[in-house]
Specification:
protease; disordered N terminus; 9-stranded mixed beta sheet; 28 strands; 7-stranded parallel beta sheet; alpha/beta; disordered C terminus; ClpP/crotonase-like_dom_sf
Length: 623
């Protein structure tokens, strides 16, 4: 049974009640991805200072909480933004950063009278731009409380600075590793490698922009793929320049000039106003003590992100509301059935997801549903089965699809069943197309002296034989099957978006879009994050925007004790299992190109990995 917990819904409003709002600095008005989309409410956070009675009730509640949930008065919330950020709500024994909990902690801290401010330690992040945008937005939301938020960044590049520049103050050590040199996109190709080892990939891709099969068959980039990647880089770079220029009060031309100068001296960053000052961490700590009136000999009262995640919203008076909205999170590659006992949560498992959807549909508790999607796609059949269940759910109650970093191909297949689709402006979405492939290992088998003989009955029984290429009649069947699957996908997308098939064909063809472009093409309804999805869900359910609702998670990770112990062992020993590769070889794929890498100037991966390269390496090592 899916476990459920309550998460916080911040104060949302579509009105601009200036009497209740704090006076804002100019940069706080820069929301970037919260845009006006006609009749949809914005979901913008509005900080409301608690009255005397509510403050009194909160103080009483704080006296009754468990010791582990107690926080010293005058504490500073310390969040270390480093490494991977997921969109899943983490359990007590889970490690790593959770986007929902980062955002929740910042809103709790804004209202918590025990928290004086926030100290962000920022280093290299491994996530997409949508999560970066959501995090940045909540930093700006926190600043509306009037409390300080200070950033310290010893290692940072474009993504990290995008978050850091939203802080009130930003510091870096004299030896900081930083680079602001621009953005790149890379596409890898295995055609030459496979040719040399004697492997012939036979790929059927539908859609001229569907580049997933290109890296298996080509040795260089196609013009269509180059067109898409150029557009994506232009959009991401343009958004970065616009946001940073507004935040720092600089002209766009000055930002671009700085990037093209190739600055490497930290002193230049301070001189040009990119950071507040150059300080070591102990100096920043001393500065915070002085700000809080703490003598130098005493320790700065920091409360860690993980500990603060235990603080109940009830104790801060942030819960309430009888109306409930279900939140279902779907992250990773799509497959029909789960993996082994020790890997129960490897991506989106259709059969488990469908169970949750059906339970929510049958329940009368929920007024609306938000489905958070962060997926590059996967198995077409699994995507279609989930699409059907989401469609049935949408017939009984409002369903809002909220996209995170990626909601492409099979991920978009899921989203298009919802009544409204919300994405961040740099979410990667669309990629309406399919690809199917088989590998002919005939030449490789010959080189290593391996032989395979098959006995079959039926003209196409040996269709996926690995020791020979397709016959002409098999190739025709293979192509027609993939074409039929694409037409189903495209036609359903057209119907869900109220478009003609001809119009959908123009924007489909396997092309990947950023959220902004997808909205202009009609693939997305509104631009924004989770808070906007909540506001739209309330609107669709006819719940007044000023009224609080209870958001109920139905996708929290739930591991048994043996699974927890196994994960601890693999983490300690460095053992990992290879999963979420290309396919199991038994189905057509609706998947975004996993071989595309969006890189910042540091050269680290910003989007998705390349499982096929790992799979090939392991195979050749075995041979």
């Amino acid at each position: 049974m899916a476990s459920s917990i309550e998460i916080m819904e911040s104060n949302l409003t579509t009105s601009k009640n200036q009497e209740e709002k704090c006076e804002l600095k100019p940069e706080l008005a820069d929301y970037g991805s919260l845009k006006d989309d006609g009749d949809y409410p914005s979901g913008e956070f509005e900080f409301k200072k608690p009255g005397a009675w509510k403050s009194f009730v909160v103080k009483l509640r704080m006296l009754t909480v468990y010791p582990l949930q107690r926080v010293r008065k005058g504490s500073v919330l310390n969040i270390k933004l480093r490494g991977k950020i997921t969109d899943q709500v983490k359990g007590r024994f889970s490690s790593g950063l959770s986007l929902p909990q980062i955002c929740e902690n910042l809103i709790k801290a804004a209202y918590d009278p025990r928290i004086s401010g926030v100290y962000l330690h920022i280093e290299t992040l491994k996530c997409g731009w949508a999560k970066i945008e959501e995090t940045r937005r909540h930093i700006l939301d926190f600043r509306k409380s009037g409390k300080f938020i200070v950033g310290y960044a010893p290692v940072w590049h474009e993504k990290e600075y995008y978050i850091a520049c939203a802080c009130e103050e930003l510091y870096a050590p004299p030896s900081a590793y930083f680079s602001l040199y621009g953005l790149t996109a890379q596409a890898s190709f295995l055609g030459g490698v496979l040719e040399k080892v004697g492997v012939e990939p036979q790929v059927e891709r539908i859609g001229k922009y569907k580049s997933f099969g290109d890296r298996l068959t080509r040795k260089n980039i196609s013009e269509e793929n180059r067109e898409v990647l150029t557009t994506l880089v232009d959009n991401i770079y343009g958004n970065w320049v616009n946001t940073v220029s507004q935040s720092k009060g600089k002209k766009k031309e000055d930002i671009e000039r700085f990037i093209n100068e190739g600055v490497y001296q930290v002193e230049k960053l301070k001189e040009d106003g990119w950071i507040t000052d150059i300080k070591y961490e102990d100096e920043v700590t001393s500065m915070l003590k002085k700000k809080l009136g703490i003598v130098e000999k005493k320790k700065l009262p920091l409360v860690a992100y993980k500990k603060y995640s235990r603080v109940r919203k009830w104790s801060l008076g942030l819960t309430g509301g009888k109306d409930q909205i279900a939140v279902i999170r779907a992250s990773g590659s799509i497959s029909r059935v789960g993996g082994s006992f020790f890997e129960p949560n490897s991506g989106i498992i259709a059969e488990k997801f469908i169970e949750k959807i059906r339970k929510v549909r049958e329940s009368k508790r929920y007024k609306a549903v938000i489905i958070r999607i962060d997926s590059p796609g996967g198995d077409v059949l699994a995507s279609d089965l989930m699409w059907r269940e989401i469609s049935l759910l949408a017939e009984s109650k409002p369903v809002i699809a909220s996209m995170v970093d990626v909601s492409a191909s099979g991920g978009y297949y899921m989203a298009m069943a919802a009544q409204s689709i919300v994405s961040e402006n740099l979410t990667l979405t669309g990629s309406i197309g399919v690809v199917s492939a088989k590998f002919n290992f005939g030449k490789l088998y010959e080189r290593i002296g391996f032989n395979k003989e098959t006995i079959s009955k039926g003209q196409f029984a040996d269709l996926y034989a690995s020791h020979r290429p397709f016959r002409p009649d098999e190739e025709k069947l293979f192509a027609e099957s993939a074409q039929n699957m694409y037409k189903r996908f495209r036609d359903k997308a057209a119907a869900s978006r109220s478009m003609s098939v001809e119009k959908m064909e123009e924007i489909a063809q396997g092309r990947l879009w950023t959220g902004d472009d997808a909205a202009s093409k009609g693939l997305v309804d509104a631009i924004g994050g989770f808070s906007r999805a909540v506001a739209i869900a309330k609107h669709k359910a006819k719940i007044p925007q000023h009224k609080k609702v209870r958001l109920v998670e139905v996708s929290k990770q739930s591991l048994s004790l043996p699974q927890i112990l196994f994960r601890m062992m693999t983490s300690a020993t460095g053992l990992h299992q290879l999963h979420d590769g290309f396919t199991s070889g038994d189905g057509v794929q609706a998947r975004m190109d996993d071989g595309i890498m969006f890189q910042g100037s540091e050269g680290s991966l910003l989007a998705v990995a390349d499982p096929i390269l790992n799979l090939l390496k392991d195979y050749l090592n075995f041979v």
